[in-house]
Specification:
Strand order of the largest sheet: 4-5-6-7-8-9-10-11
CATH architecture: Alpha-Beta Barrel
Bound molecules: flavin mononucleotide
Number of strands: 12
Structural class: alpha/beta
Order of helices and strands: HEEEEHEHHEHEHHEHEHHHEHEHHHEH
Number of domains: 1
Largest sheet: 8 strands, parallel, barrel
Number of helices: 16
Shape: globular
Strand content: 5-15%
Length: about 350
């Protein structure tokens, strides 16, 4: 195993073994107001929703994690079976290894299960030529979609990660046009990978016909930290230092949800580990919550472990709905919430500019 496949396997290892979480929990700055007299039974709360035309039992999805290396097949199998059983959405990790090296099996495996919303994945940096590598075009994007019968193709924005990678793709000029070209023909979701999306970027993307946004804001997995640990393992002091400098970079996840609200479906993600945080994501304006690292250890273990963890998150989400008197996801979106601390300062900033 070498090159990109090796790198993908190292991301999993580092994410499991090292502390790669952001130092600040921005979701803790969001408080939901308690309803002491909800006038609805807990088991009457309706958590179901429709996202991108697909019926989900709960506004939750597992966002892109992996594919293309030996451990990836079992991870994606366990995730897919659990998501199918719980009726929640699932994204696969970057399909670049399959498009470049032909290692498709670890992605295709999710087709064996009836996952209600499947999301493919390629990177924005791959939409333009980087060093000696050719750019991915429409036929590559179609291949990625067909590989898993995807309902949407996520294009990830990950320049924070690329700057901290010894082998990073740091050309960004032309990515916007690349996204525009794909959005004309295919259902495209734009996702960040831990640094969030601003209102300006969201508005520019809406204008070219993307279908939705997964904000992946700061506060959860820090890809700068992931790459920093890898750089340290490889003895690359320069990248280790850069990764450390930018370890906490990014727009706080709850703020990014509020800012990216430009009239498209939004997935709140970045640091979501429990159902209360997922509920907060909906309350600040998202249509669905997304999580990745919170289920990674379980995904390595078994379908049962993933299902147990996700079921608990769904139960907590239901409880948060009950305690805010929200009978359904739409009402949760209107639940009273308070923004405090650093997150409040960020949220205020935009009103001034
Ligand atoms: C091990 C690992 C691998 C990831 N690989 C990808 C990827 O290939 N493509 C992508 O768009 N996002 C990828 N992500 C980012 C996640 O989808 C998510 O946006 C980010 O981790 C923030 O969510 P979290 O705080 O719940 O982990 C990866 C995350 C982890 C932990």
């Amino acid at each position: 195993m070498k090159g990109i496949q090796q790198r993908k396997a190292e991301h999993i290892r580092v994410s499991l073994d090292e502390d790669v979480a952001s130092a600040y929990d921005y979701w803790n700055d969001v408080k939901l107001v308690h309803d002491a007299l909800p006038e609805i039974d807990l088991d009457e709360v309706d958590t179901s929703t429709v996202l991108f035309g697909k019926k989900l039992a709960c506004p939750l999805m597992v966002t892109a994690i992996t594919g293309g290396h030996p451990d990836a097949e079992i991870i994606n199998r366990n995730l897919a079976e659990a998501c199918a059983n719980l009726r929640i959405g699932l994204g696969v990790g970057s399909q670049r290894p399959a498009l470049e090296k032909g290692s498709r099996k670890s992605y295709e495996v999710i087709k064996e299960f009836d996952v209600p919303l499947k999301v493919g994945n390629i990177g924005a940096p791959q939409l333009i030529p980087q060093r000696k590598k050719r750019a991915f075009g429409i036929s590559d994007a179609r291949k990625a979609i067909d590989m898993i019968d995807a309902d949407l193709l996520a294009i990830h924005l990950n320049f924070l990660q690329e700057i901290a990678q010894p082998e990073g793709d740091t050309k960004a000029k032309g990515c916007y046009d690349g996204i525009r070209a794909l959005s004309r023909e295919l259902p495209i979701l734009i996702k960040e990978t831990g640094a969030g999306i601003s209102r300006q970027v969201a508005a520019r993307l809406k204008g070219i016909g993307i279908r939705g946004l997964d904000v992946a804001g700061a506060g959860g997995t820090s890809f700068s930290k992931v790459e920093g640990r890898r750089a340290a393992m490889l003895g690359d002091r320069r990248c280790e230092r850069i990764a450390d400098t930018f370890a906490e970079w990014g727009i706080p996840a709850p703020v990014s949800v509020m800012w990216a609200d430009v009239g498209l479906p939004i997935i709140a993600s970045g640091g979501i580990e429990n159902g209360l945080q997922a509920a907060k994501g909906i309350a600040v304006g998202a249509d669905c919550a997304g999580l990745a690292r919170a289920v990674l250890r379980e995904a390595m273990e078994s379908r049962e472990a993933v299902e147990k963890k996700l079921s608990l998150i769904v139960e907590e989400l239901r409880i948060a709905m009950f305690l805010t008197g929200s009978r359904n996801v739409r009402e949760l979106g209107n639940a009273q919430r308070i923004i405090t601390g650093t997150t409040r300062e960020w949220a205020m900033l935009e009103k001034e500019i």
